What does this fold into?
Amino acid sequence: MNSGYLIMNLAHQLKYQLNQALLQEDLTVQQWALLQQLMLERPLTAVQLANRLDMDKPTVSGIVKRLVEKDFLTKQANPTDQRSQLLNLTTAGQTAAITGQGISNQILDAIIAPLSTEDQQLLNQLLGKLIPTKEQS
It folds into this structure.
């Protein structure tokens, strides 16, 4: 089989399973991705989040609105740009991000379980080679 198809199919399965599990926590994959990005780097503006997550600004704005309503995010004035607001995680948002990470890990562990430990390590090494670093992009 074609590698591109296999990778696309696996990514689809992962996203579907992750979305189904996250929905039980009242989160979507996109909401969790935004929370995860803010766990890595915060505060950020909606435009910065859109760029980092490769989403359009209206999509990010909708996600931000829902996460603020859930009390997962706070907004504050951006001292360097009056047109934007800085977004940050609340304690509840941090908890949701960590919960989502645990769910993601469980799903990935289940998918790669048929591989030996050595094959899992090799898979991680090979995937690491395929993901461009900041210097390469």
